[in-house]
Amino acid sequence: MERRTRGKPTRCRNGPGRAGITCGISIRKIPVGLSIRRRKNYWDAGRFICWGVEHAVLHLLYSRFWHKVLFDLGHVSTIEPFKRLVNQGMILGEAEFWTATEPRRRVDEEDVEKSSGGGLQLKSDSSVKVTSESFKMSKSRGNVINPDDVVRDYGADTFRLYEMYLGPLEAQKPWNPRDIVGMSDF
Q1: Mean per-residue pLDDT, 163-170
Q2: Which of 9, 112, 181, 183 is 20 to 30 A (C-alpha) from 44?
Q3: Contact by Cβ (8 Å): 133, 172
């Protein structure tokens, strides 16, 4: 794979699978003429790494393994590859509405209204309480959002802005298509 660094092509060869991808996280182009001691500092631990918890398990395992190899060989001065790990929260599917009493059944959003007590209830029967829940996006649930469709309809900048304003980085956040329209108008 060819990369360009300051306009000049550089070669980067990665190993197989996740090991190669993770090894590439630690690779930086070392300027020519650095002493051995300065090279160790140059390859020192990164400040932090931000990954999604489900996606990152093997990447973190491999990066720690390769960094330990480099540490044992004396090429790096830190035992851990990153000073701080941040697991970003998952973006959940759209909120689904379910009856709170057994047998639970899914209801459409149009059939739900706010109750006087602040909760949710059915429009047709105010005695039936309703809960709002968000689940992990999955094809089997049918709640997956294709980012290409969002970029096509609203633009990449609107999509990025919407994701940034969903909430704290570490928290799980539900996707709401009505909110992205507001970002587009912004």
Answers
A1: 84
A2: 9
A3: no
